[in-house]
Specification:
It is a single chain. The longest helix has 22 residues. This protein has a two-stranded antiparallel sheet. Helix content is 58%, strand content 2%. It has one domain. It is built from 12 helices and 2 strands, in the order αααβαααααααβαα. It has 228 residues and is mainly alpha-helical. It starts with 6 loop residues before the first helix and ends in an 8-residue tail after the last helix. Bound molecules: iron/sulfur cluster (SF4). The site of iron/sulfur cluster (SF4) has 11 residues, from loops.
Amino acid sequence: MQNPFDFSNYACQVRNFSRSLMSSGSNAAEISGRMHLLTIATERDLARFGDSSEISRVACGPGCGACCVLNVAVLIPEAVAISWFLQRRFSTEQLGELKTSLQELLSRTLWLDDDERLFLRAPCAFLDDLGNCIIHIVRPLLCRAITSTDPKSCHDQIAMVPLNGAPIVEMNLFQKRMIDIVYCELAGALEFLGLDCRPRRLSSAVLALLADPEMIDLYVSGEKMPIH
Ligand code: SF4
């Protein structure tokens, strides 16, 4: 019989890797590169240690944005990687439109708790009209942790939220747990290194960095970022 996966040993490895990765990086390109390495390593570990038959049951994919109505928390290096990606891939006009969408979403959702946001069903500003995530390649860790095995049940459950309360959806829990570990250990590494480790709302963190890319200097110097 196969031994169960040792999640605490994995957490220890991720802790050391994250501390070493995040101990350097003084600009957006470097911090984005380090986040890229962390996510590549996570995807590699999922493929290596996950049960392939379970992984093949994960049904999340392009065109399904059913769960993209939830509050998403990001750590600053994740927000840096997303804003860096957008600044390189999007035209000035597209960035202007995106900033307007982010601002509108923020005005509607900033003070809502998770249940209230779910009830509102306001889609993420990064979800396009076809249900695709426009930042898929750099999407937050917590978005990667949502791993439904049945998209219909996501749609049905979220539609029923006003009646039933919190939705229950079948997920690949191995993948969720691994990515949750990576997120927590990354936050722990930032704290250990004296960097801003407080989670922020995805829309507010990315909007702030798009509006003022120089704000990254505060993060590098160990200051707290003025982001809600
Ligand atoms: S970042 Fe992408 S995957 Fe995450 S909630 Fe927004 S659209 Fe969905």
